[in-house]
Amino acid sequence: MINGIDKDVYHYVNQELNKIEKEFDIHILYAVESGSRSWGFANENSDYDVRFYYIRPLYDYLSIDRKRDVIDINDLGHRKYEYDLDFSGWDITKVLQLHRQSNPNLREHMLDDMVYRGNCDFLKDLPDFDIITLKHAYGSMTYNNYMRYINGARTDDFSPRVVKTYCYCIRQILAWILIDKYNDVNAPINIDIILDRFKDEDIIGNGLLQDMRDLVDFYRSGCKSNKLSEEKILRLSKWIHTYLEVTKTAQGDKKELPNIEIYNTRFREIIN
Fold first, then answer.
1. Left, alpha or beta for 251 (phi > 0: left; psi -120 to 50: alpha)?
2. Taking a C-beta distance cutoff of 8 angstroms, is the pair 48, 116 a contact?
3. Are the beta carbons of 110 and 95 closer than 8 angstroms?
4. Dist. CA 38–CA 194, nearest whole Å
5. Strands 70-71 and 48-55
6. pTM of the complete model
């Protein structure tokens, strides 16, 4: 294993990143695993979600016909890989814009330990993420996931899509609580680490914490273990529902966006 990634996958992904660099004439600053693997509840059917940040040659940024600030399936097409891989990249201009906007996905990429290449030093010493913005984003994601896949689902529906959504919602709510209670913009992203943070807290009882662990283990097993029951789903669904309205409602005013010149200066430093 390298950085928690199977070494064969690690080397193969880096080979593919080299091909992307050459094909699109870019330099990749940072590449990291995202999704269920970095969140800690992957199973045998989980793919590899590779996210990367890149810069283009200087002359691209001095042209009036600006290029797209992402490289995704629209550019890469449906390529065949040795593993189940999904690649998506952001130009440094987009990365800096999203940092200024306190984007939660960017926050998680920066905290991720499953790194394929580079580091996030180029984002050091920029303004802190806004707590209210992060809380609202996590709350909105939870609400949308719940309403799309859980609301109306049978309590004996243990299908992968529904169970995975329960994992999503639990992780997002617990992250929201940590950010809210401790003003912690660096709240962990891995579900096991998050659950461990609550084992000595009064916020969630040990019984409910065990239900959450059993749910995660059930999904990790490919929804084949015997750890899940309708009673546990009922308890978890009730707990999630109590947080839906609270977490998706902005509590306080978002800070004014940081001065754009801070980010313009950092952009010029990076491309130079």
1. beta
2. no
3. no
4. 13
5. unpaired
6. 0.92
